[in-house]
């Protein structure tokens, strides 16, 4: 039987046609009209009207911090339950990440803890320059609550929506409403360009400036002139062609991820000791990955026992993101709360969730999990 991967790429079929267009036009090196088409399609899909495509989600988040003049000594608030790619941009700028625990009902940044942290920091004169909540596993943070917390202090919010393409918050796309939102098209994401990212905003000036910085900050002159420094963060026109193909199927992909979640849920709902990542009442996540919690006291085995049993059957699963405050790299970083995301990490397992999986594939995973029940 073929190996079941956690979240492999799933091409829609039109990607090669778009790539062929790029080759026919010879816009290979490296910008061109396909990039603009991809950005436009992405903006239309998300409803966030301005977007610039870059080499990865990490680059998009780095550009956002540069645009907000984050610099040495500044503090940046992050959800502790996240992937490090969202956080390293603070380190690039020698800023200090401050981590906030999750709300147990959504697993995203807890707005109450955020409010408390801001009030404490306001008293000490150490308010953060920016707050970066993550839409974890494609579930939106409670963005309006977070914006309400930050507004009195004039602190901007940048959403790390790397995992959240196609996820909804209230009646809008994930990240819509923040000053900026960053998305990833890494190979494991719900749609992929093999590697890539997007920075999106309602503010055209910010997106224009991000585009400028992502192209080595070249001043408009016939020669190479620079009044500031930038990065080589642009996406290539060839890669954007894959993105255009993926945009044709993104809505289908979200629907299928959610169906796969439901299949797992139906099959495992009565198993004592297994529970699922809850869906926040304010939105509809993209269920990028189906995540379960395994309580060993009731299930009789740990998530690691289950992971190893799956691996033996050539099925890839993965523990939850290890919270940032538990990482050796961040052992001295300030942390607000912590017990919620630690608890999730101690029991969480991400199951294969690729959109090419069929009912038999899900049943194969479920039977291995059930066999571990004591
Ligand atoms: C939450 C989160 N933030 C940031 C990133 C970084 O994105 P990329 O890998 O495209 O740089 C990822 C994914 O890889 C992610 O899952």
Give a written overview of the molecule.
The chain has 374 residues and is α/β, with parallel strands linked by helices. It folds into 2 domains: 15-249, 3-Layer(aba) Sandwich (Aspartate Aminotransferase, domain 2), CATH 3.40.640; 251-371, Aspartate Aminotransferase, domain 1 (Alpha-Beta Complex), CATH 3.90.1150.10. Helix content is 37%, strand content 14%. The chain has 13 helices and 15 strands. Strands 1-9-8-5 form a 4-stranded mixed β-sheet, sandwiched between helices. Strands 4-2-3-14 form a 4-stranded parallel β-sheet. The radius of gyration is 21 Å and the shape is globular. The structure holds pyridoxal-5'-phosphate. Pyridoxal-5'-phosphate binds next to α3. Pyridoxal-5'-phosphate is lined by residues 56-58, 82-83, 85-86, 134, 160, 162-163, 184, 186, 197.
Compose a concise summary of this entry.
By secondary structure, this protein is of the alpha/beta class. The chain contains 13 helices and 15 strands. The protein folds into 2 domains: 15-249, 3-Layer(aba) Sandwich (Aspartate Aminotransferase, domain 2), CATH 3.40.640; 251-371, Aspartate Aminotransferase, domain 1 (Alpha-Beta Complex).
